[in-house]
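Justification of resources, computational component.

The compute hours requested in this renewal are based largely on the per-chain cost of generating structure records like the one below. Each record pairs the submitted sequence with a full structure-token output. That output is archived, and it is also reused by downstream analysis tasks.
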Amino acid sequence: MNINILGSGCVNCKNLEKVTLAAMAELGLVADVEKVTDPGEIVSWGVMSTPALVIDDEVVVAGKVPAVADIKRLLTSR
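The structure output for this chain reads:
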């Protein structure tokens, strides 16, 4: 599983990373997590509102920071 956190490094972007890592830890999931801060690369994903969460090359969240439970559901539905 590959996970990308898309965002400029703002507070919400850092919060998305934090809750994603917490969800992974609760699930005992090990995955590659990459932070993408380049605006051109973020737009190439079709994302216009950050932060965004990409799981296995699919944008699953954009423009908000979901709860840990929501991210756990997204991670386990793959």
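The chain has one domain: 2-76. The chain is about 40% helix and 25% strand.
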